[in-house]
Amino acid sequence: MTDRPDLAAMIVPLGRALMAAEQPVLAAHGLTMWAYVVLLHLDEGPARGQGVLAQEIGADKTRIIAVLDDLQERGLIERHPDPADRRARLLALTPEGRRLRDAAQAEIQMQEDRLLGKLPAADRRGFLNALTALAGLPRDEIVGD
């Protein structure tokens, strides 16, 4: 037996608290959590269809349709035919979507900076480096699939 809690036992409550802190910021920007996740993900480049996007962000592909429809109606994302596969649609951020995402993210990260400020500078850097490394691992390396 070890003298520390399991990682999930520490991370899940922290993650839930962080998400709760983000909710008012997202609401002020007219975004749901899933809409924000889509805008963040599309900054990495166009996504090949809603099924691929849903899989990449861990969303149910049938539920993400309403989120994508709303974002498109608001001019925050665009859907274009994929030249490599006319059945598929490429999803991409619009300049307005990028602006809104950046504004929401800046406010969220200001809140996070206040939280991170509770740690000594060296611990803060180590925590962020470790979290970045672990978050970058492929899912199957964590789960063991």
TrEMBL record:
Where do the HTH marR-type domain residues begin and end?
A: 4-136
Q: Which residues form the signal peptide?
A: none
Which keywords fit this entry according to its UniProt record?
DNA-binding
GO BP annotations listed: response to stress
What is one Pfam family matched by this protein? MarR_2
Q: Which InterPro entries match?
A: HTH_MarR-typ, MarR/SlyA-like, WH-like_DNA-bd_sf, WH_DNA-bd_sf
Q: Which GO terms describe its molecular function?
A: DNA binding; DNA-binding transcription factor activity
Q: What protein name is recorded for this chain?
A: Winged helix DNA-binding protein
- The species is Nocardia aurantiaca
